[in-house]
Specification:
This protein has 568 residues and is mostly helical. It has 2 domains: 267 residues, Haem peroxidase domain superfamily, animal type (Myeloperoxidase, subunit C, Orthogonal Bundle), CATH 1.10.640; 177 residues, no CATH class. It contains 25 helices and 6 strands. The chain has a two-stranded antiparallel sheet. Strands 3-6 form a two-stranded antiparallel sheet. It is globular, with a radius of gyration of 23 Å. The termini are far apart.
Length: 568
């Protein structure tokens, strides 16, 4: 547990509230660059410093070698998870294939007191769609696309994370050099695309067979007797509360198979918003290659590719803090990526994804009921794995349409039915690794633990529901339940502890990215022209507008904020 600080999160919350009530003070700070930079650094450092710094003392390492199945079985015949290790080990500290953890496992007796999962899952059921008052649906889909690159639990061994633990745009480049080579044209540094350059290349040929060039993609290997496309498309056939419910007939699913793209990751086709965002970054990569080739005619294919990738990744890092984190966190003063100060802080260590960070990003309540694109209503069966719709309307139109829809309010009783089973899996995983209670995580992240259910929720009805579920014991409320049940203060998008944990890992992950390091950041990594592009890129909307490639300009900004402003 961390030591309580004088300026803890409870007191910092008071300061934030004061600044929101006095916008004139915020305006004064933002008008003076040096003062703004000083306050900005203090806010970021104070947030990251609110909990123990990396290296995380504990991980999901158990002593069983990777690839070795568990020997014990559950009563239903499935593999029983290893018992979590509650002491510090060398392998657990240094082998980053294993997911880390912020806190050691809870005693087994804690799990024994927890209610059945079926009763807990009822907390998530969407009674009626509760819209967000300030976030667009685009923020929801961007969050999915963004986190897919590093929240990557290995399906064959849940202890492992298959990512590089970095924000590295593996959505379009893949997780390793071999995958990147398959996605490249090997000419002028560019990535493979459709003939018109607007979308990723198709995974299947005209004969509906996998393009031989992409047969070597890691996710095309057979897993447990199934092909990748069968696994990722399976959710279109059913799901939700009723396992017998059929969303789409087999012929429609087969039709959509033909439109799957060759992407960096196996889930790269999951929604038309995912593929639209990837398409914009692919277009930008190829645009950067042309800029670099004009400025450096002596550069070969590899150098053009690598430099364009460096620029693309750093632009994403800036946009993540300057736009995404500002919208999610709703700070009273606009935060900016402050690059150099981090290297002098004690928390400046290589990133490692923790199980808590993996679990807390299950923002399924964010998912909207529908999308409206050019007068057509798309429910989840129409915007998932349906690249034909993306190609018909274009990436800019789809992204702008998502910006016109409100996302859902993040919290309990607001999850769509088709994501029901995901909540079951999340809670089951958390229990298998014996995550500690919500109030213990409050203390670990420098918040005062809730003393009762009403203090936790601020809502009498929800407080009574949770009290009955956890037998009146606030100390037993589970990590995930507490995160989403906690009272939120407008205009905050996320409840307090969830907001803090997202910020801690986001800032420490982004600011320790090697491309931002003082001895890396510069012309050698990006070229002089690349540095200028990075400095001039201030919004995702700007990225979309310079990569329309013949598509009609959208009528509104491609914005994470709701409602979006019209394009002037």
């Amino acid at each position: 547990m961390t030591k309580r600080r004088f300026l803890n999160n409870d007191r910092r919350r008071v300061i934030v509230g004061f600044l929101r009530l006095h916008p004139g003070i915020v305006d004064f700070i933002e008008k003076w660059p040096r003062l703004h930079a000083f306050v900005n650094r203090g806010f970021i450092n104070g947030t990251v410093d609110s909990t123990a710094a990396r290296p995380q003392a504990y991980s999901l390492w158990t002593g069983r070698p990777i690839g070795t199945p568990t020997t014990e079985k559950n009563t239903d015949g499935t593999n029983k998870p290893d018992d979590p290790v509650d002491y510090i080990t060398w392998t657990g500290l240094i082998d980053r294939r294993y997911t880390g953890r912020h806190l050691p496992p809870a005693p087994a007796s804690y799990n024994d007191r927890l209610p059945s999962l079926d009763r807990v899952l009822a907390l998530y059921k969407r009674r009626v769609f509760i819209p967000s008052h300030n976030c667009s649906a685009l923020l929801c889909f961007f969050a999915q696309w963004f986190t897919d690159s590093f929240l990557r639990k290995d399906q064959a061994d849940e202890r492992l994370n298959t990512s590089n633990h970095e924000i590295d745009l593996c959505e379009i480049y893949g997780l390793d050099a071999a995958t990147a080579r398959l996605l490249r044209t090997r000419e002028k540094g560019k990535l493979r695309t459709s003939a018109d350059g607007r979308f990723p290349d198709r995974l299947f040929g005209a004969d509906l067979q996998v393009n031989p060039h992409y047969a070597g993609l890691p996710y095309m290997e057979m897993r447990n007797g199934k092909k990748m496309e069968d696994v990722v498309l399976a959710s279109l056939g059913g799901g939700g509360e009723d396992p017998n419910k059929q969303y789409l007939v087999a012929s429609e699913i087969e039709k959509r198979r033909a439109y799957l793209y060759a992407t960096g990751l196996e889930r790269g086709n999951s929604t038309i918003l995912y593929t639209a965002i990837s398409s914009i970054f692919i277009r930008e990569h190829n645009r950067l290659c042309d800029l670099l080739a004009d400025a450096h005619p002596d550069w070969d294919d590899d150098r053009l590719f690598e430099t364009a990738r460096n620029i693309n990744i750093v632009m994403l890092l800036y946009l993540t803090i300057d736009e995404y984190i500002n919208q999610v966190g709703q700070p009273p003063m606009k935060l900016k990526l402050a690059r150099l100060f981090a290297e002098r802080k004690h928390w400046y260590r290589a990133n490692r994804i923790a199980i808590e960070f993996n679990l807390l990003y299950r923002w399924h309540s964010f998912v909207p009921e529908k999308l409206q694109v050019d007068g057509e209503t798309l429910d989840h069966t129409r915007y998932r794995f349906n690249n034909e719709v993306l190609e018909r309307y274009g990436a800019a139109a789809v992204l702008a349409a998502a910006a016109r829809e409100p996302g859902g309010q993040v919290g309990l009783h607001n999850n769509p039915d088709f994501l029901w089973q995901a909540e079951y899996a999340a809670h089951q995983f958390a229990r298998s690794q014996r995550l500690r209670s919500f109030v213990e995580y409050q203390a670990a992240f420098d918040w005062s633990p809730a003393k009762d259910f009403l203090e936790l929720t601020g809502d009498k009805e929800l407080a009574a529901e949770l009290s009955e579920l956890y037998n009146g014991e606030i100390r037993d409320v589970e990590f995930l339940v507490g995160l989403f049940a906690q009272e939120r203060t407008p205009p905050s998008v996320l409840p307090p502890l969830l907001n803090t944990m997202v910020a801690v890992d986001a800032f420490s992950q982004i600011l320790t990215n090697p491309l931002l390091a003082e001895n890396v950041y510069g012309p050698a990594a990006f070229g002089e022209g690349g540095l200028k592009v990075i400095e001039e890129t201030t919004s995702f909307h700007q990225l979309v507008m310079r990569n329309l490639m013949g598509e009609a300009p959208p009528p509104n900004r491609v914005s994470f904020a709701y409602p979006p402003t019209p394009v002037q």
